[in-house]
Recover the amino acids of this structure.
């Protein structure tokens, strides 16, 4: 049974992660198993994304970051990229309305430059249309790569040093964090990767220094609210020491 249905008791029983990251992986394999085109897997994954983001908001998660498209995903066949861009467009046309009742704040992390003007406008509309809400912050990582994010931070900081705004001796870890797309947000406590892959694939490298990882064998389109509950249960069994004893 889903956590939300027994929210009262579960909030006593379990500590909720403040920030969850999800690497939404396995859409292609899900489609392949069904002899369907990969795009059908992405459509199914999109439905799972809507369901799980709403569920996270319902149970009281404060920040959710979902990895939707990486800086390396442009290497895929053009046909697949076109299908993904269409999916993003269809989704973003509805997202502001879709999440209104849940008060979800939508943000995009990643470099928006290569997206079409239409997609860029939809991203802006979603960010501006949801900015005043007070619910869960949903970061959608699109054309996101952690290395790219760090290069961008280095450039911003270097420009600050060059024009005299930043004193080189005062650069510290916060200076770096403040120049990432996730500036001002807590680091993820838990990162979930469905589909059984044991790798980070360029997701939140700096932010995940002390994140707990939960790898699950389910493919993303098959992922349910109960799987999220399970990941939170596993998270609760971990002993986070942050380098202490
Ligand atoms: C994740 O699913 C979605 C994106 C990367 C856009 P995949 O498309 O990577 O699915 P698999 O890993 O091939 O099964
Ligand atoms: C990571 O999955 C990116 C997203 C889920 C958006 P990939 O499928 O691109 O990662 P690799 O290629 O298996 O490392
Ligand atoms: Mg994959």
């Amino acid at each position: 049974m889903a956590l939300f249905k027994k929210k009262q008791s579960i909030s006593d029983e379990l500590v909720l992660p403040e920030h969850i990251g999800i690497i939404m992986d396995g859409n292609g394999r899900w489609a392949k198993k069904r002899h369907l085109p990969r795009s059908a897997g992405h459509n199914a994954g999109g439905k799972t994304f809507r369901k799980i983001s709403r569920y996270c908001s319902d149970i009281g998660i404060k920040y959710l970051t979902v990895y939707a498209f990486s800086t390396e995903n442009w290497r895929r066949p053009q046909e697949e990229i076109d299908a993904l861009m269409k999916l993003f467009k269809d989704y973003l046309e509805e997202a502001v309305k879709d999440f209104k009742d849940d008060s979800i704040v939508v943000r995009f992390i990643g470099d928006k430059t290569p997206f079409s003007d239409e997609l860029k406008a939809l991203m802006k509309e979603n960010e501006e249309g949801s900015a005043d809400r007070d619910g869960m912050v949903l970061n959608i990582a699109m054309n996101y790569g952690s290395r790219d994010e760090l290069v961008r931070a280095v450039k911003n900081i270097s420009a600050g040093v060059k024009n005299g705004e930043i004193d080189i001796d005062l650069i510290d870890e916060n200076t770096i964090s403040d120049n990432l797309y996730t500036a001002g947000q807590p680091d993820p406590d838990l990162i979930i990767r469905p589909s059984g892959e044991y790798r980070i694939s360029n997701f939140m490298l700096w932010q995940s220094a002390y994140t707990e990882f939960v790898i699950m064998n389910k493919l993303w389109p098959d992922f349910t609210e109960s799987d999220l509950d399970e990941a939170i249960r596993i998270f609760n069994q971990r002993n986070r020491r942050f380098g202490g004893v």
User: Anything to note?
Assistant: Confidence is low (pLDDT under 50) at residues 5-9. The beta strands are 19-23, 63-70, 105-109, 137-144, 190-193, 212-215.
